[in-house]
Design goal:
This protein is an alpha+beta fold. It is built from 17 helices and 25 strands.
């Protein structure tokens, strides 16, 4: 479904419990954050800016679009305006020659306030909550529905990993184009700002939540607080009944993410891929999204294990889940639902995750190029399963972690009899292997040739030689030293260790 079709469908649906239209020609509407707060406190929803109550498109001033988007995102991240804060990702969509801002709002796992008051959604209206009993029921609804909100009164700052707390600040700062509020906050203030300190309305006790332990806890803290939590990474390329390699992970979510990414880098290929003039790692894009979804949307009250299993022809992710329906997900028409809004908001704030549902769309976009035309599968159920197909040709080239290639360059005795172990991340033809081995041999024997000279020697283009050099750089076998004009390629320490003179 295109963006325009999506907007027209919402316009036909009209305003209701999950849809709100607001005019916004040059400025944000005064009541906008009352609606956003109400959506957060109920089931989430969509706000269309530049549309009258009756569905007529009036549009946003095209010259003010960037300002409106910036104001909206900034205000949603201001505790003075919205508490707890929320990451919003408005989209600019052109329809009938006019500009509309599409603002999806996820359901919150906590009770949100704006201007000091909580708001709730009923029919197509936003209502300020002043009745204590209604507010109590709202807290109970959120606490019962989202296990990440479980208050852990015994949890203190001493139970958290200080290095991970500092890393969160750094990630948030890098992700923003200006100073992030967390940079100047104390640890306690930062955790409160992220919505990780709550009050249990049933017991009256206050404390850090289960989400806090998951994000920042030490392994010992997680063992005592969430004993059922760990992630199992398995390589089953040869032995599918047991495993060829394994990483049993019980660590906070940021460290778990790193270890899962490292496991992927170790055992899966990363083909050469250009998006426009720039090379991107489609392996990185695909598995970054799937791994973040594995961590952000897991049902942590479940005793089932989350697993990543790499087979010869596929990678299977299994995640304990609170299912909203059963069966395969259609990436073109599914409605994303967040399972852990506080965790998801943290991953958005630190740049690991984009807007809700974008992971499925990104994987769908790149999987054809990664898996030779095959499609990924997303299956909703009590165990959410994601199946990433693999290219059989490229996986066959990775049965061993590295492959030996020998130089066939017979022009000098100095360059024969050299064996180089090159980690394979791309499928290489035999001529390419021989050419890359010859280039590496020249560099090993301190022959400072240029790409033009290598291209002439092997009868290929300079572009091909530059690709060969890129492969060697990514394998961490060579590096460039000196200026662009007078510098040269030399072996890295890894490259020196990999070369065996026979």
């Amino acid at each position: 479904m295109s963006d325009e079709q999506r907007i027209r469908q919402i316009l036909r649906q009209g305003e209701g419990p999950t849809v709100e239209f607001k005019e916004a020609h040059t400025d944000l509407p005064r009541s906008l954050f009352e609606t956003i707060c109400a959506f957060l406190n109920r089931e989430g929803g969509v706000v269309l800016l530049g549309v009258r109550d009756n569905g007529t498109i009036t549009g946003v001033d095209p010259h003010k679009v960037n300002k409106l988007v910036k104001d909206l995102v900034t205000t949603a991240n201001s505790p003075e305006k919205l508490s707890p804060i929320c990451m919003l990702f408005p989209e600019v969509i052109e329809i009938d020659g006019k500009t509309v801002l599409y603002v999806p709002v996820p359901p919150g796992s906590q009770v949100h306030r704006t201007k000091g008051y909580p708001y709730d959604r009923s029919a197509d209206g936003d209502f300020r909550i002043t009745d204590p009993e209604t507010l109590r029921l709202m807290y109970l609804r959120k606490a019962a529905y989202f296990s990440e909100n479980q208050v852990l009164p015994h949890l203190t700052l001493a139970d958290l990993n200080a290095a991970t707390l500092q890393r969160a600040r750094q990630l948030a700062q890098v992700y923003r184009d200006r100073q992030h509020p967390w940079v100047t906050m104390s640890d306690e203030a930062m955790l409160r700002s992220a919505g990780l300190w709550q009050r249990d309305v049933q017991t009256g006790k206050e404390g850090y939540t289960l989400a806090t332990a998951l994000l920042f806890g030490t392994p010992q803290t997680l063992l005592t607080t969430v004993p059922q939590y760990f992630v199992d990474a398995l390589l089953r390329r040869v032995d599918e009944d047991r495993y060829d390699d394994r990483d049993y992970i019980r660590d906070n979510l940021l460290n778990t993410y790193d270890r899962l990414i490292d496991f992927v880098d170790k055992h899966l290929y990363d083909p050469f891929y250009l998006e426009g003039p720039q090379r991107i790692s489609i392996r990185g894009v695909i598995f970054r999204e799937v791994i973040v979804n594995l961590l952000a949307h897991r049902e942590y009250s479940s005793g089932f294990t989350a697993r990543m299993m790499i087979y010869r022809d596929r990678v299977v992710f299994e995640n304990p889940n609170r299912a909203f329906y059963q069966g395969p997900i259609n990436p073109d028409s599914f409605t994303p639902r967040t399972k852990n809004p506080t965790l998801a908001n943290f991953f958005k704030e630190t740049g690991f995750m984009d807007q809700l549902g974008s992971g499925v769309r990104k994987v769908t976009k790149y999987i054809g190029a990664y898996a030779n035309g095959k499609e990924a599968q997303f299956i909703e159920g009590d165990m959410f399963r994601t199946i990433i197909p693999l290219d059989d040709r490229l996986m066959s080239a990775m049965v061993a972690p590295s492959v030996a290639i020998a130089s066939s360059d017979q022009k000098s005795k100095e360059s024969t009899g050299v064996l180089i172990n090159v980690p394979i991340n791309v499928l290489l033809s035999e001529p390419s292997r021989q050419r890359i081995a010859g280039i590496l041999t020249d560099i090993a024997h301190d022959k400072p040739l240029r790409s033009t000279q290598w291209a002439e020697r092997y009868g290929v283009t300079e572009k091909t030689i530059r690709r060969d050099l890129e492969i060697l750089r990514e394998a961490k076998l060579i590096q460039f030293e000196g200026s662009k004009k007078s510098g040269r390629y030399v072996l890295t320490p890894t490259g020196k260790q990999q070369i065996i003179n026979e």
